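Structure tokens please, single chain.
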Amino acid sequence: MSIVAIDIHPQKTFSELCPNELPVPGALSIVPHLNRQAAWAHYRVLTKDAHSPHEPWQIDNQEHYLPLENAGDWVSHAVLGTEGYENLPGLPLPDNYHFLVHIGLESHTHTFGACFHDMSENISTGLIEWLASRNAKTLIVGGLATEYCVQATVLQLCWYGKWRVIVNLDACRSLNAKEEHQAIRNMEKAGALIVHHTDDIPALLA
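Here you go.
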């Protein structure tokens, strides 16, 4: 049985480094928490948003962020080859992770969960199967943003696997406090364990 740390979309596009994309306040501060939780894991997974510069859902500016279930159009972000696509400073290079997931490469889809390429959850990214092949027992999750890709991925992990899912809020940041609180309730209802501080994790691994 193994412990797997999963870094969900810890990219510059969702940080203050790319203010014209989809910056999440405080995004840079999750890096030490992601690195620390990975130190307790046998494997480390990276998921990344990856888009074309000419997506059909692009809009000129992002005035409102809709709840996950209603989210539709977005400004250009995480475009392959741009700074926004890169990992946050202080994280390993992608080839130093044990498994990589890229979502959003298909222009007609804009999914949020890292377990499937499509919103209907028919086309697997291989993450669930890879975790099963590594006999994953515990998953420690962090990333951006809590109410979007973190929530969607955690729900999928809870629904499609028998492992224990720990969500480390120290390693997550959100755009909207109300939506964040609802996302936390949704993840707890699905079976995830929510910890507010990285220091709380070791007690759950004993």
